[in-house]
Amino acid sequence: MKIRAHAESHVVELDDGSQWRIYPGDLATTLSWKPETDLRLEPSGDRTSSHVLVNATDQSRVRVSAAGDAWPDGEVKKALKGG
Length: 83
What we know:
mainly beta; globular; 83 residues; 1 helix; 6-stranded antiparallel sheet; 10% helix
């Protein structure tokens, strides 16, 4: 899939129309994304996100959840603190 829009740093819209909120700790990974970046969506076994977006070029992974979903507060705080 390709990126349709990435106007907000924390939300990406893919060419299939789906919108994904990027995990706060993974935002830096998305700085190099361009509209032609090829991404694939995979389910995540992580407790903080439902899916991951994988960059097909460098295999970097970004945790995401559907744009309308809320992050589980306790899990996000723990993960960002390194716990």
